[in-house]
Amino acid sequence: MTFTLHLGDCLDVMRGLPDNSVDSIVTDPPYGLSFMNHHWDYQVPAIEVWREALRVLKPGGHLLAFAGTRTQHRMAVNIEDAGFEIRDMIGWVYAQGMPKSGWLKPAWEAITVARKAAKKVLPLNIDACRVIRPKGDRTEYGVDGDEGSPTANTYGERERVAYVPHNQGRHPANLIHDGSDEVVALFPNDNPGCKPHRVKSSEDSVARLQEKGWGFAGSDKIAGYDDGDDLSAARFFFCAKATKKDRGANNTHMTVKPTELMRYLCRLITPPGGVVMDPFMGSGSTGKAALYEGFRFVGIEQDAGYLEIARQRIVDAAAEDLL
Asked: Concatenated DSSP letters for 113-125?
């Protein structure tokens, strides 16, 4: 079966799953912000939940878990206390956050990158997630283990060394943005004459990608700029927010993540043909993304209404993949 969906509390469901049975976990759990007074968002997932996720995950496998900026520390601590190794944090920056009265407008979300300890860890799929390099892009720098020749300073530490740009694109970074004017304006521009061009949706044409050569490797979604002005650093990170078409008909879930973003995250940490699990499935963006990328999927959702929305989105994705 390409996908398996479970209705119920994720802690109870995971307790019935075999040890070491999934290759990766990509999830958007409750942030503990009491979002719009929804009962499911009163607190971040407890240590016991992440401990079960750790048991089900294969040794050396990775977890990616979204979190809000106000409670990200609690999310990460619970994940770590459950036995995961915290490896990094990815920032997803956007301009369409919903401001609350008296508070700063939210403009980014944290994604905790964690790993299950093992003698042989599974490496990230760097080449599958490289950022396509525009023509004339400058040489970048790497460290030992990247494309450069390793060197060490007098303290035995690895030094940054120059190297020839990788022909598959730039090394993926721990920052992703939505291509909006507000966000693009925050990035340095090596060409002062560059005028940012807003990317309005994730349905922008493949022709622009072919013309400009910007975006994630394997993706047809890109950030655009005026012809000849290719030097804004914003070109290295891009993923639009979810559109109405992406959400699907009758999707009432309030926190839908864009499929293109979830495809990138699934691709980053899942081996070919692997199984992706989402214990907080919501309306199924992770499952939809996993199928598009050729992975199998296990989803868990405690709300029957959301599970049916997820099921339809995932079934539709499976049908598209067969066309």
From this structure: EEE---SSPPPP-
Please give the Cα distance from 139 to 5 (Å, whole number): 46
235, amino acid identity: R
Model confidence pLDDT, tens digit, residues 70-80: 899 999 999 99
Q: Mapping DSSP to helix (H, G, I), strand (E, B) and coil, where does residue 89 land?
A: strand
Burial of 1 (0-12, 13-18, 19+ CB in 10 A): exposed
Q: Are 240 and 201 in contact (CB under 8 A)?
A: yes
| 180 vs 246: CA distance, rounded Å | 18
DSSP E strands, 57-157: 57-67, 85-93, 108-115, 141-142
Residue 254, helix vs strand vs coil: coil
Confidence of residue 144 (pLDDT cuts 50, 70, 90): very low
> Is residue 318 within a helix (H) or strand (E), and if so which, with residue range?
helix 304-322
> For residue 168, is pLDDT > 60?
yes
CB-based contact 23:296 (threshold 8 Å)? no
Confidence of residue 62 (pLDDT cuts 50, 70, 90): very high
Q: How many angstroms separate the Cα of 254 from the Cα of each of 37, 88, 160, 185, 236? A: 12, 27, 43, 28, 28
Q: Side-chain half-sphere of 289: how many Cα atoms within 13 Å?
A: 30
Which residues are CB-contacts of 201 (< 8 A; sequence separation ≥ 6)? 240, 243, 245
The secondary structure of 17-71, three-state, reads: CCCCCEEEEEECCCCCCCHHHCHHHCCCCCHHHHHHHHHHEEEEEEEEEEECCCC
Tokens of 203: 């349905």
Mean pLDDT rounded to a whole number for the chain: 75
